[in-house]
Amino acid sequence: MAVYFDHRIEAPESSGLPFQLTWHSALPILAVASSSPTTGGNVDLYLQQGEYVESCHLERPYQPTVLRWHPTKPVLALGWENGEVVLLTHPAGDQTVLASTHAACITLLEWSSSGSRLVTGDQTGALAVWKVDARGRLQGNHLVKHEYNKPLTCCIFKPASPGDDVAMLARASVSGDESALDMFSWKGAPLKMGPQEGLAFYVSTADGKVHSVDEHCRTTLLLSVEGEIKKLLYLEKRGLLAVITDTLMLSQYTLGPEGGAQEVMKVKLSSKTGQNVDIVWTENGLLITATGEQVIRLWDLDGDDNYVLPLDETLGFERGEMMNCVSYCAGKEILAAGTSHGRIAMWKMVVPPGGSRGDTKVQWKLQTPTEIEGNVTELQWGSSLNLLVANNSNTVLILCEHVMSAHFSQQVAAVQLTPTQLSITQFTTGAHLALQSDIHIKGVCVTNDSVTVWSGKQVTVYELSGTVLRNTGSFPCDSHIVAVHLENLYTVEPNRVQIRTQQGTVKQLLNFSKSEGNPVLLSVCQSYLVVGTDTAHIQVFDLSRRDAKAHCSAKNLADQIANLGALRSVKCNANGSQVSILISQVNGRPDHKVYFYDVEMDTVTHFDFFVGRPSSGILQPEESQKHQFQGTELSSRCPVFQFWDESEPRLFVCETVPISSESLSASFLDAVDVLVVTLFCTQEHGLLLQDCYPKSSGLQALLALDVPYYYFSCKLLFRRGGVFLPEPGERDSGSAEITATTPAPPQQTQPSAAQFPHMVSRRALRDFVGLENCEKATRDAMLNFSFYLTIGDMDEAFKSIKLIKSKAVWENMARMCVKTRRLDVARVCLGNMGNARAAKALKEAEAEPEPEAQVAMLAIQLGMLEDAEKLYKCCQRYDLLNNFYQASGQWQQALETAENHDRIHLRTTYYNYAKYLESIGDKTLALTYYEHSDTHRVEVPRMLQDDTSSLEIYVNKMKDKNIYKWWAQYLESQSDMDSALRFYELAQDYLSLVRVHCYMGNIQKASEIANDTGDRAASYHLARHYEGHDDIKQAVHFYTRAQAYNNAIRLCKENGLDDQLMNLALLSNAEDMMEAACYYEEKGTHMDRAVALFHKAGYVSKALELAFATQQFSALQLIAEDLNEFSDPALLARCSDFFITHSQYEKAVELLVAAKKYHQALELCVTQSLTITEELAERMTVTDSKELSEDARKELLERIADCCMRQGNYHLATKKYTQAGNKPKAMRALLKSGDTEKIVFFANVCRQKELFIMAANYLQSLDWRKNPEILKTIIGFYTKGRAPDLLAGFYEACAQVEIDDYQNYEKALDALTEAVKCLSKAKDSSTGRQEVRLADLQHRVILIKKFVHARRLYMEDADEAVRLCEALLEEPELDPAVRIGDAFGFLVEHHCQQGNFQVAYRKLEELQKILPSQNIRYYVSQASLASLQKEMGVPMDRGDNSQAVKEEDEVEEDLNVS
């Protein structure tokens, strides 16, 4: 809670009426322009508290028109109505008159953002730009002058584009970005460090034009609107220019890079006509106007939204009060408006959770108004101190915010109401006093017999004697803080504390060294004084003797606390053993810890509200961990106020706010969620959380803790004139007693106390609810009980309170058990209370698995409904929460819980709510919820049965079949048969229709209904009716329609209706079929029907027996189709013989297989050449070892496989051979199938040598030369089959293919080499034959190597290669290894290339002699043959002709043979 101290400016007598105000943006200097009809115009400067600056007085015989402060320097630009412009410097008062540029009234003065440019403009449209140096001094003449020929109205500078981010460039440079590194280099262009000053600006004229002036002072027309422009705004976030005209037409323009402007929005702002309009706007794009109405209008230019802020009469405003002016303070986030009745309305910006200051969720909370005199015509926030100046047409007042002082001690409380007024409450006597001081009160300190106030310049002491306040002393003192103990006052000055009498005489000095610093904080508790200094030292003094003595040496907290910036608050406990400290960090932010200094142990510990736990060095008993939900609430918080109990040294209390709100001023802590936290602090057990609860919204701040109460100051809701009203908050139990109001003493000129509210409220501690007026012994016992319970020592806790007999004490302890969740203690408490009902409910609640649910039941029994609700939500037992809401009559919450969390009980909740509504007589709403619960079909007729007219309307409205039926039954009971029939028909209740028609004798109509609808119940009822009247035919018909076939069969048997009997039996169940079949058998007629019914009923053996006995062969065939392996084997065999006799072999085989006579079935397949399908084969495959032995099973499988082989079904044969375990036969069957993929797969799966070899042999029969995969598989299979001799043979074949087909001796050599390796690994079992083969292979390898070597050598040494080749031709047995033709071809090619065609021809003839039957073209290239033919003149086709002749002869021979 805050007040605004108002300082009237000390204006000289010569000054006239003020009409224009302006604050410096950073310095607390106010410029005021005033006018006098005799002297002309004046401009004066004033300081923070209205002090007049004589050296800075300007007086002219004409009026000042515009005032503008330099943005950083104490330089004021003044424009006068004669065109003169003056620069006034504070505090020297130097005046610099600008060169005569303007000859008309100055209408425009504007500084650039850093003050290097000044723009001046006048009524004729002349505009000049001036350059100013860094000290605010004018540099030469104007830079440029433009003539617009119309009065200039507004000017704004365009913000500069942001510069380079130095930190980002530095990181990029370190990571190796050369371009970023170049930007830091001195060789490159200078680096732009942050945003530069914008020198371009926009200027508007009275004819609605806006001109753009760039950095070089070149002017261009930007846009034009209708009417005179009153305001220019630049929305930097969106890059928009907003223009407001004198008719309040708002236009927004986007600005292009080339300088053009395009309109994006145009809207008319609401206003009161004929009034001056005050317009301000915020950086978030919020436009605020005051137009002399009862509301302030706000337009969100970013979100295209608008709303109004009205005044509230409950806060002290009056009906019809108008707002004339408005001003916004971004630092405080406060919007201020001046009213016509001399009040200043202030709205505080409140951002709800999840919102931000730039969105539409921002809310404005109206504060208690500040009152000044007259009609407020002008308001302005200014300076870095966020001061507010107000002009009421007669004088100017400077308002400075001050947090309202409050203090409590020794059962006396004082709370500040206004800058000079206090409300004082004596809780021991119940008296309420009012104090009017003659100084601005900046602080107050009370004792049981005195009230001390100070202003920072003066201290005044009042004696409090009964209900009388008397001024006992007043003396000047510059101390900003004062403490009082008994008759002594404690004030501070540099490096010492002064102990004074009430008249100001210094009795004693408490000195501090230079290193210990200057005292800045004082606090007294009982007879101990704690002093905190600006160097973070603290010292405790004992005041119990005549002179103050040091209780401990000065402690430097900076050695113990890291990141300590400054002390915010220091307090000591009642015996001086502990000092609690709140600090600010080095960065200025409040620390989220409370530090505790133990004077005796000289140690510092802390409680961290960021995590909700004490420091790790302090033991935290396990029992105290029961405060889990409180610990959750305590996390992420920051302490703001702290106090020790005035008499109990262990008890400490503090107020905490969320971390996000820690920087808020104390005046606006009401906007956040505040928790009051109580701790026990002892040497043995450290810091223990005792209680934590949210502060009521009607309370302002914690004042003190004095068991059994917390004391709070109340928020001031209403203030008008001398009458005050606090906001309704928590009222203490003793507030009714504090009603005595005492008039002021005669010597005090003050309002009566009745005009002042009770500004202090008290709330009992959790343990003392109901014990507020207990004696000291009980109070001490309860404190000990609470302490021991907190540390978990239950024995000591019970010892503390065992002598207390009060039920209120035990009930209070039971309530505490809800907080601590100690159900064992709660049972004892309930026993001592004698509350059997609660004890029984708690016993029943133990069945719930969640401890929170059990505690919630205890809370319900103790009337702690809010705690019960929280506990149920905490354990997510929404079913119990739903029941709780229903039981407590909170039906809306119950419905919401059921709809969102407990949908399984949603209909039940609707039903219970409907029952409740019915009980209170709200039948209309009850009807709705009966429908929601889907019970309306029964409940609504029951509810409305006494109101038949309403019920009939409801029935017709709902059109529900069930309700129609209920209503029809009601009408039938009233003998209104016609109406009943009509509603039965609407309900489609055909049974009731038939029943009523039968009753009324309308049998024909009943028959039509039963036939048309086919309703079984209706048909059955009608059939019974016909049977009762001996109409058997109709009875059978309707029994059949009702599917009551047993009744129809019964009537048919009784009345000999054999033809209908068969059809009915087939429609009925097996039992009825059996009875009908027995009926036919006994009669001896229609035996085919008997067989069919026995078969249909499932009695197959009986059906077969009867079919064989009566020679029913067609029926027998039908029965056999239903036989399977589960049928009787004898029956199966008998049927199979029957089918064999009638040549139906396939059916016979199936029956033999079903009878498990597999060999006979197989024999029948072979003899009759029946195809064995895979299904049949599977049925003959026996898996159960009980039916056949393993050997017999394998034999059967092999026989099946043999049969499949004969039939050519190789895959099935493979499968059966495999199942029989004969894998070689399976492979042979698979080889016959030719399925290469399955052959490879089967070989890989079986992994047998023999199978690998078989598969490889098969694969050799394929075209493995063109398929490398097959080639790899063959090699792999021979390798896996461990057949190196076969693998060697395969390699040998590969080599021969390479030679014959491709003449690739290199690959052939590789293949033969592999063959030699494989053959050398093979075991010789053929009496040396393998050795001969190996030697032959090695010899071939040697020959091929020689030929390959010769071919490779040819490129290097052709002669040597030819020599080697000729030597190779002399080798015996050359041809198997190297074809002779290839060797001769090599030589022929060589001689042809050398031009030795004679030698080449001789070699060719020699080759033809050796190989007369072969074509030489296989060995010699076509080019070489052509060269030979050309050079030698001999045709080269003789070999071809002989070959052709040979081939023809062979053809003829073949033809002859054939």
Report what the structure shows.
This protein is α+β, with helices and mostly antiparallel strands and 1458 residues long. The protein contains 46 helices and 65 strands. Strands 26, 27, 28, 29 and 30 form a 5-stranded antiparallel sheet that branches. A hairpin with a 4-residue loop joins strand 32 and strand 33. Helix 24 (1058-1067) runs antiparallel to helix 25 (1070-1083). The longest helix is centred in the last third of the chain and has 25 residues, at 1329-1353. The N and C termini lie far apart (129 Å). Mean pLDDT is 80; it is low at 186-190, 617-632, 664-670, 729-754 and 1438-1458.
CA(first)-CA(last) distance: 129 Å
Instruction: Give the DSSP E fraction (strand runs of 2 or more residues).
Output: 25-35%
Detail the poorly predicted runs: 186-190, 617-632, 664-670, 729-754, 1438-1458
Radius of gyration: 57 Å
Contiguous helical run count: 46
| Outline | extended
Number of strands: 65
* Mean pLDDT over the residues: 80
Helix content: 25-40%
Largest sheet: 5 strands, antiparallel
Class by helix and strand content?
alpha+beta
Please identify the oligomeric state. single chain
Short descriptors:
single chain; 1458 residues; alpha+beta; 5-stranded antiparallel sheet; 5-stranded mixed sheet; 46 helices; 26% strand; extended; disordered C terminus
Offer a quick outline of the entry.
With 1458 residues, this protein is α+β, with helices and mostly antiparallel strands. It has 46 helices and 65 strands.
